[in-house]
Amino acid sequence: MSTYTDQVRDYVHRYEQETGEVGLIDPHEVAAWAYRHGLIKPNTKTIIDAIASDISQVFREEHRTDSRGRRYRAKHAIKITKGNKQGSLWADIDDKNAPRSHFVRSFAERRRQVVGECVQLKTDVDVYNEKNLTSEPIQIVLDFTEDVDELLQKYEDTAEEI
């Protein structure tokens, strides 16, 4: 575990003790508290990383609508490693200069993320159910076929109305 991670855990714990906040924690509140108390002093790298994170968030949220009325994500990322630093490269789905290989890789990475989220969700539900044996178990369906079909039908119905 990194020293920075340990420092963050330490000041989150201190925040909880000093403010009495427990249960629900707002990371922005903790960050503001830590900054006010001089526990974290942003350096140039931290500031650049924060701005880059904001740019990535803007890219993630950019959507367009095609001629059939389908709303699609405009920008797609792949993970990269430069030296010992990880980052991402983004491409616009409408940019004819962006290589197909970028999108193949991006879609595969996103699919792995979805699968990973499903595995973690199932694990979390299983652990919750095992810790709460006196309650009715929470059931989670991980087959999304009907959900996807239903949402696609809504897009098709909306497109027909236009």
TrEMBL record:
Organism: Glaciimonas immobilis
Protein name: Uncharacterized protein
